[in-house]
């Protein structure tokens, strides 16, 4: 795919996430934010806390790599590595906005295990991080996103192409925003 098409996709998905959060999540009451259909399911705040924890790691890694990479020449085409493509495709929603493959959250990013990641201001914090991500995407256009590499969260060994990791993060965000949408559309979701 062209690098321009990749960035366009990433920006569009991120802007959709921001719009949904601003229009549909910020106005929710504390009761709605904390509602869950079952005890083993994350509520809206827990879902957002999960993606915000990932955002904190990846946004820092992206910014640091943009500032320090020696690969300063952007290229017109981006080619995913086979493993990178497999990784982000497994995260991407299906055509019907459904989750194709369920995954288990790492313990450190699971709000049912690490309750401290669910803070009072986690919705606003994540929304701010999504706006920060748009800035990171703009800055990333100035480097070679095929040659620059990023370590996966919780993994000190494997590095993926910067572009593949951007796709992973944005599709991970989209996947969990869809989880929030599904919660809000649940027939028993409390009405204000």
Automatic annotation (TrEMBL):
In which domain of life is the source organism classified?
Bacteria
Gene3D superfamilies cross-referenced by the UniProt entry: dinb family like domain
Q: Which InterPro entries match?
A: DinB-like, DinB/YfiT-like
Tell me the Pfam families matching this sequence. Answer: DinB_2
From which residue to which does the signal peptide run?
none
Residues of the DinB-like domain = 18-180
Coiled-coil residue windows: none
What name has this protein been given in UniProt?
DinB family protein
